[in-house]
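Lab notebook, bench 4. Still working through the backlog of constructs that have no structural model yet. Next entry is a single chain of 368 residues. Request: give me the structure tokens for it.
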Amino acid sequence: MPSSGRAPAFSSIGGSRGAVLEEVVKWSIFRLLWRNHRGEPFPSPPSAQPWDDDRGMTTARVKELARACGFELAGVAPAAPLPGYRHFADWRRRGLAGEMTYLLDQRGELRADPRNLLPAAQAVVCVGKLYETAAPHTHEMKDPERAWISRYAWGEDYHAWMRKALRRLVQRMAQECGPFEYRIAVDTAPLLERDLARAAGLGWVGKNTCLIHPGQGSWFFLGELLVSLDLEPDQPVPERCGSCMRCVEACPTQALVPREGRWELDARRCISYLTIELRSEIPEQLQPALGNHVFGCDICQDVCPWNRRAPATQEAAFQPRHFAPPLAELAALNESQFEARFRGSPVRRARYRGFQRNVGVAMKNVRR
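Model written out:
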């Protein structure tokens, strides 16, 4: 998904803004002189060194601060090569990523190790923000004349909210332990988010390929904070889908497919991919299965038993603004009206042409 802005690749924080700038300039000059004079790799600044016990920052404290910044889930994963990258590489090699070029080029290869984004990283703080609301779910929608927009896109664009909250977390951590290097990531950076979240103990990756928390379900935005701090990692949560096949059986396009004893997503058949990421025409044979979906799909999460008692968020930014608008109303929008209506919304990801393509398919399905 796109972002409204990208955090600097390398950042250092602590003390006043002037002190931070002075520290950055000092180390930049020192590193340049060291390399030119010694002809050997320069040492890392003190902020990248392993933490001494007296610095006071622990995994438990990071979680407390994360909750204070508005995240319902938080945990720590090691900044190390990810075993799941082998599956990801095999998945994209077999073409299951469709036309998502950002997963197929060198950005895909960067996902093998978080340190490709921040060489000084020793840990990854993983967070989850709940976006479930009390509004109806897919199976409760009985009016075929209304468009279904995926739940995550009913409110404001989550990228800005998540980045702002992660910056607050960085500031609070730095106030307690001093400067450190970091990088903020919110699903636009080349990271295997769900693998990291699982390693951080936030949940397991279900058959629907979503991260599932045993007590709070799967309606979460994920974010990461790569840090140069030596934090103790959490333990992964064991897989608990068992023999349940509800998500697999409910998928209208059979996009969830078996592979080597696990389940994976064939994005080329996924309604979310077809209505958001695909820029060309939707394959004719898949169009009837889209029903009234015009942006994304929630079916595999709606049927998941772990979401039966999922709590609802109280965050105002994610309350419904774009819930089930009439198809005819959407079809009448011109491009400027589309931009105005969905300003600050994830729906703009589909672009006007793609969105109207989706509306046209949905309206054709209504007439079938």
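Notes after review: The chain has one domain: 11-367. The two ends are 32 Å apart (CA to CA). Flag for follow-up if needed.
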